[in-house]
Specification:
Number of domains: 1
Pfam families: Ribosomal_S16
Oligomer: single chain
Number of helices: 3
Organism: Wigglesworthia glossinidia brevipalpis
Structural class: alpha+beta
CATH architecture: 2-Layer Sandwich
GO cellular component, one term: small ribosomal subunit
InterPro entries: Ribosomal_bS16, Ribosomal_bS16_dom_sf
Order of helices and strands: EEEHEHEH
Keywords: Ribonucleoprotein, Ribosomal protein
CATH class: Alpha Beta
Shape: globular
């Protein structure tokens, strides 16, 4: 099953996350199908903090992909 989740990048004490569509059997930071955006929790500017390709996420969800809890919360905040 395809799941849309966060993949951690960045370095120690400076996290940066990519929002990716991947197979749920793959590791968190492993191979993914498509990059759908990013989340930078440290950034102060809103434009550099989060970016989500909502059209692509909607496409994956129509194909049966599930959202992780964290991505679901980020998507809700991004739409506001």
């Amino acid at each position: 099953m395809v799941i849309i989740r966060l993949s951690r990048k960045g370095s120690k004490n400076k996290p940066f996350y990519q929002i990716v569509a991947s197979d749920n059997r793959k590791p968190r930071d492993g191979k993914f199908i498509e990059k759908l955006g990013f989340f930078n929790p440290i950034s102060i500017e809103k434009s550099k903090k989060i970016f989500i390709k909502t059209d692509r996420i909607n496409l994956w969800m129509s194909k049966g992909a599930k959202l992780s809890d964290r991505v679901k919360n980020l998507l809700h905040k991004y739409k506001k």
